[in-house]
Every structure is written in structure tokens, then in C-alpha cells.
Amino acid sequence: MQLIADDNIHAFYVSPLWLKVSAEVLKEQHYECQRCKKRGRYKRANTVHHNKPVRQYPRLALTKDHLEAICKECHYEEHHGQPKGFVNEERW
């Protein structure tokens, strides 16, 4: 996609094409967080995540097999390496 090649990621994520594909993925995956589902929990998905970084793999940006419906907490954990609100502080 040219928007990704031009490093205009925001424009990609608000483009009608991405909005259409991400809505289809959420519907096809029943609005269920796929990560929580693997852990035996149910949580409503509100985000579509690229399994490989979109900047490194722009050709996969709209490929549904490469996309995963996830909740905002799992998305945060994916990008920040720890659950939101996590404090790594030892108290003795």
C-alpha cells in the first residue's frame, strides 16, 4: 500500500479500505478476542491487530489471514510487553 510506503500509517488506519477490512475481520471472528479465547476466557474484541508489523510487511496489511481480532488490553500487552496497569515493583 502506498500510504504505508510513504510512512503515512495514520492515513492507512483511517482509510475506507482498512475500515472495511477490519470491520469484516471483527465480524468473521465474532467480535471475540482471539488471545483471550485461547486462554479459555471471553472478552469482546474492539481492535484488529496485524500479526506482523505493518511497516515491515506492507503487502500483508489487508490480508485477513494476517489479522486478528483482539481486545484493547491484549493489544496494549502486545505492543508494550506487559498488561496495562502492570507495576513491576517488589515490596518486602
Structure notes:
One of its GO terms (molecular function) is endonuclease activity. This is Putative HNH nuclease YajD. Belongs to the HNH nuclease family. This protein is mainly alpha-helical and 92 residues long. It is 39% helix and 9% strand. It has five helices and two strands. It has a two-stranded antiparallel ribbon. The mean pLDDT is 88.
Task: Give the helix/strand layout.
Elements: H1 2-5, H2 9-13, H3 16-28, H4 34-38, E1 47-50, E2 67-70, H5 72-80
Antiparallel strand pairs: 1-2
Which key features would you list for this structure?
92 residues, 5 helices, 9% strand, two-stranded antiparallel ribbon, 2 strands, mainly alpha
The gist of it:
Helices cover about 40% and strands about 10% of the residues.
Number of helices: 5
Major β-sheet profile: 2 strands, antiparallel
The assigned structural class equals mainly alpha
SSE order in H/E notation?
A: HHHHEEH
Number of domain units: 1
Helix content range: 25-40%
Q: Termini distance?
A: 52 Å
Could you tell me the radius of gyration in angstroms?
Answer: 15 Å
The protein's oligomeric status is: single chain
Q: How would you state the average pLDDT, rounded?
A: 88
Mass-distribution shape: globular
